[in-house]
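Q: I have 1711 residues here and want to know how they pack in 3D. Can you give me a structure?
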Amino acid sequence: MYHEQPLRPARARSPRWACVGWGGAGGASPTVGARDVSLQGGHRVPVALLSPCPLSSQGCWVPTGDAGAPWGHLGRWVMGCLYLAGHTSRLLKALLGTSILFLLAHFIFQICLYTLPILDQLLGPSCSTWEVLARHIGVTRLDLSDIPNSVRLVAPDVGILLASSLCLCLCRRLVPKAGPAARGRSARLRVTAHWLLWAAGKGLAILLLALAGITLPSASSSVYYLLFVGLCTWWACHLPTSRLAFDTLCFLVGIYAGGHLLCLYAYQTPFVQGVFPPPTIWARLFGFKDVVLYRNCSQPNALVLNTGHPWPVYVNPGILLLLYYTVATLVKLHRLDARVRGCGAKCPARELVELESWPKDTDGVAEDTKNCTVHVMGNSPQPGKRRPAERLPLHALGHVILNQSYVCALIAMMVWSITYHSWLTFVLLLWACLIWTVRSRHHFAMLCSPFLLLYGIALCSLQYVWGMDLAPELPTRVGFMSLEQLGLVHPKYPCLDLGAKLLLTLTFWLLLRQFVKEKLLTRRCPATPLLEVTVSDTEPSRQRDVLKALGVLVRDFYAKYWICVCAGMFIVVSFAGRLVVYKIVYMFLFLLCLTLFQVYYSLWRKVLKGFWWLVVAYTMLVLIAVYTYQFEDFPMYWRNLTGLTDEQLGDLGLEQFSVSELFSSTLIPGFFLLACILQLHYFHRPFMHITDLEHIPAATMPPSRVAVGVSVTLRVPAAPTKWGLVLERLIVLGWTFSDTLTRAQVFVGRLLELHILKLVALYTVWVALQEVSLMNFLLVLLWAFAMPYCRFRHMASCLSTVWTCIIIVCKMLYQLKIVDPSEYSSNCTQPQLNGTNLNPEELGNSTLYRGPVDPANWFGIRKGYPNLGYIQNHLLVLLLLVFEAVVYRRQEYYRKQHQLVAPVTETIFEDISREHLDHGLGSCAKYFLNYFYYKFGLEICFLMTVNVIGQRMNFMVILHGCWLVVILTRRRRAAIARLWPKYCLFLVVFLLYQYLLCVGMPPALCVDYPWRWTRALPFNSALIKWLYLPDFFVAPKSTNLISEYPHPPHPQPTTNPWQPPAERTEEWLRAAGENTDRLDLARDPHNPTPNFIHCRSYLDMVKVVVFRYLFWFVLVVVFITGATRISLFGLGYLLACFYLLLFGTAMLRKPARARLVLWDCLILYNITVIISKNMLSLLSCVFVQQMQSNFCWVIQLFSLVCTVKGYYDPKEMGKDQDCSLPVEEAGIIWDSICFFFLLLQRRVFLSYYYLHVMLDLQASALQASRGVALFKASTLKSMHSHRQAEKKSLAQLKRQMERIRAKQEKYHQERLPRGTGDRDPSPTPVLVEPHGASPPICHSTRWWRPWLDHAAGTVLHSGEYFLFESDSEEEEEAAVPEEPQPGRQSAFQVSMAGGTGEGGAGGRGNVVQRVLNTLRFLWVLCRAMVDGLTQWLDACTREHADMSTVLRLERYVLTRRLATGEDMHRGVLDELYLLPPEEPPAEEVGEQGAHPCPRAIPSGHQGAAPRPVGCPLPTGSQEQVTILESQEDVAGSQELLALPQNRSRTASELLLSRRLYFPELEESERFYRSHNRVLKLLLAGYRCVAAHSELLCYFIIILNNMVTASVISLFLPILVFLWAMLSIPRPSKRFWMTAIIFTEVMVVVKYLFQFGFFPWNGYTMLVRNEGKPFFPPRILGLEKTDRYIKYDLIQLLALFFHRSLLLSYGLWDHE
């Protein structure tokens, strides 16, 4: 408000202060009388700001209760007023002296009073004149019996004494001891605090001035009110201001506030209250309230407060005190500023802190200097100049608010008039409506701003006068008009109303300020020529550009979505409160707008502006009518003018409301009017621009950064500041978020474009089914034909929009009070008891006889419902229809803007086609999102049909089951396509027929249905419900039809004649691929799908799971489907499952026709079961009592129970325990799940991908005994190794004996001719190595040589031990020099090397670093454990892994030959490996063992040892182990390929002699090596389980026997112990087949004995033998239990899992 500021923070040239001005000159130590004191750290605190503390502790407002203390406290308050003039130390000393004097006076007075009786007699009683005078002086008689009041009277003086003493001590002890740097920082902090105090204090002072004026309206407070109004008006008029005037005003306000407080304080004394009693007009006029009461002079020390005043009375003194402190602080800050400036002028030789005022307002000049060229000169601004970027955001925000101040003012006028209803505020409403309607509303509002301000001030002033406590004196009527109609009443809390009105008047002041600025100041300023401005850097420009960009973004956002706010306000204004005619007109206008938008878009755009003008004019008319109808005599005027009654006027919306109802009734239309005006004047033009589909601007790429709006020439590169870098980062993040949001919008838009019509249709039919009526039948009719027939869809959308609008208007009109259904409702007469088959209770609940029948209900119109809740369903339908049009037009706009063409295929991801299906999981998921319904639409329709049957289970769905059987028997998609149009037409007609059954006959005819006419007809309510017949007692459940509606499929994915036109067929085939069911896929030599058997990606792993193992999972589902329901149907599932488990592998190898014959039979059996259960629901739902009484065995045989609620009470049916209903075993849920998986497996059989599985299975069949040969070769190799080791041991023993003999002869020869003195005491034996070995190594290189040398001299020649001096060949072999090789690192060492490379010793003492290191170590330890466990599991299964690799390699070769149709012969696999060399003689083998270049270790291709440097490459097999015995051992194999030429080699030897490498297998190996640790561990665990799967089978067989413990399960454990575990090397095929067949037979036997019609399965027998271990069925294992088959299923799965592993390893067939 005031542009000249005293101080602001600035850069200091020096950290040292030469002249401060707050605490003396030259930085000398301050004294007590100085203006501030310094803390120990160098910070100085103004004592003048702390000096009011003792005063506040005294409690200048809170009275003490005695009659004399107020005058003493008043003296101290006068001392406190010296706060304005300074003299801080003197004030503290005066307070200290005064408090001491008063305490001494109290002390002396009490002593004299109790020691001198004459003084007590002189004072007289408590009510005497001298006693009252003494209390006014400040001394009073203390009552020792009333200690709390006595302490209260003395405590303030003690508090003043302590506080003033403490302040004086602090002032003397605070001495500066800081250095120059600390003093400099303190000075900068002090300057900043000074500036903040001034800026905040000025605003706080003005705010407190307003609060002081309006808190308690009175003549004394009116000074503050008038000053506030004058200051705001002065500021709004741009009148000149000066610092001296403002300081003078603060000084005067402080004096007046202090005097006001003194008067309020003095009024609390009994003397002043006696002179001016509170009820008198003078006390009420000046706002003096008796807070302290003096009613009993006999108890002068008691404090009695008046709690009957409103809360503003108690708040007012506090606000005055805050106002006084605030203005006093501002005056002190001004004097401090003047002292600092004076010090700066007296000390020119010293460096001063730059204190600079705020710049003048240059807005007027800035507007004329927009065209300029800005040159950036660098980043070194002058130290004394203020950077213009520091207040740019707030400055720009202030400009925006001022420029739009007329909008704020108009909104304030409307809010004022609506909130405070009166004739005076009605003027504001008319005034605002007039300004809104004129074309140049901005100019007109500016011209009206002075008058608006004067009118607003006048209203506030009148409210101020009527807010005073002068109700008896102020008039209530002027002539014939009540002043209450003018708003001149005394409110309960006037301050709240005054505050709200002054806040609204603030917008008028802003408007006047903008008007003066635009019209007066701009004319006086001459036009400024073009200037060349030099700025320090580009930061202000960048911030300005960012603000502009944000402003454009916000403007575009509001332009696009503000119309949605208006639409929401239409709904709110229509349904808020009771429905009346003017609200129905609002809804009619809204529906008209939506209908035009949906049906005729171009016409809607043409009339939209006129529509908004119509809405604005109508809203103004409604607001004025409702507003004026609340005044006196206006209802009479309307009745006389229209001739309508009060009820009819109420239906029109004209009624008198209470205060709260009036506020809501006028506020909502007022805000709606405001929203429509904003849309019309501000957002209509840009909205029409962005919705124009004819003139669409081309899309531009989003800029990477905000464009600079001015021409900038960089002479010196400016380094970006910290906030500049933050701004740049925010810009980048903003654009990134914008790009992401744009991509998300495009994706959601495309998704909605594809599916919005389905959502609209589904929700529309759901609403029609929830509210069954004749009017909703048209909606069902439209959308039932629109979904299967595309050409009807647009027509259905348009007609549904129009019809829904008609329904909404009819429903709203029916809620008016003038519509009385009782006048035309029908009352039906109840028939005789023999004239209907209804019971008396059912007769009373029938729609015909339970009350008057409203004919409108049959049409879909009812009365008495909540307005919005009753209409919201159809309103949501309408909004969904409009949203559908918005989605389509938005997509059209987007494609035209980006010059795109609508895709031919209705897909989400347009760049994904059939050729991308095998590129990865992501591409595969996108492809199925695009074409899932195209590929599996037929199966989805079948599943929906089964779902309809399971949901309803009545007579109607039998027709669905028949159609399903007819379609499935066609088998081929081409035959189904010829039948499909007839099926779709049947579904549409059948749906409409069932809906008409739900609508039924009009109940107003009072005619019942024929099946209710007589008791002779065998129709009860349950049978009527099952037959789905209309009835007035049991109406058909209409919501069940929703399961039938989405059944008609989208015509696109089916074939002729529902396929797209011929020109689109090629596009569909190219994008989505073929969708045929060819049965001769195997005859096609070219398979378009890649081979996925050897997994090279995660997608291949998913394919393997789906195409290879889904068959077995489907069989598990079939098993569960049969086992969970004990019925005759379930037994069929079990038998089919067991047959396929036994012969399924052979079936999978057959051609497609042979596979599908058996599989289609299983599907037809599944459908037959579903239809049979649906037909049997007639017995289980309708005739359940008769069946339970007479045919219980039928219930138990077919597991009959009604799965649809409402037919009978389950509690009543459950009383018969001997024939209980199998509730948990009923339904077709598992049949539906089984049907789904059967259809899915059928599609798998018809896929090209399955050909790879079929060829792989055929190749596996050729390897049925190949694993046996490899295991035999491994066994023979192990035996040969043991034999070679034995031969080597015998040869070594012979050589040692020869050496012993030679050494003994040599020793005897040496002793015979020579003397003892010539012998060497310690002869060193020379070892002669055979076969020309190298000479021995020096003894020092052997760690054990010192001990051997020591023993040589003592043991070598003692006794006979000299014979064994050097007999060990290990010592000789140890003499061979070996290069030290680094040991192989463990998994933990590798993990530590890779995971602990970071970290340092500097963080040893850091606790956080230690915790992080510990966590890192634990993580590395976990990784090492996983790696180690994986390596250990791989080592345990190395042999199986090698064999699996060999079989996979050979199976790959066989698969390729089978795919090409080549002949198979014995030499097919010979080309994979190198030929084995001839077996060398035994002597050569022995020599090769000592060769310095050892051969490679045949430990597998993964762990083979590296070949030493210098050894020649092998040309043949790595190790020749061909043995004559091995060929004899494997000669008995009759398999075709079991005896290749190199059949005698093991798997590891074959891998080492491998000659051919295939890219697919190598890529598969790389893929498996690239897995993460967890997946590698899981795969290693699976391989370990697979390698020992027979042990898993043994364990599960024994566990099953332990859990069930029955005779029937004892046979298999005996076979395990006596047959399987005694078989070497493994059990034969015969054992496993015996175990599998026995388990299946055991399951069937257990299943048969679960039926309830066996005597021992009765309820009584089971209860009687519960807990008895010798119950015969329990011993035999034939007891009826809930978990009878769980472990058998696990056992069966384990056995078949082991069989599949034996087949894959080639170990199934031993012959």
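Q: Anything worth noting?
A: The two ends are 107 Å apart (CA to CA). The beta strands are 36-38, 44-46, 292-293, 304-305, 373-376, 477-478, 481-482, 532-535, 712-714.
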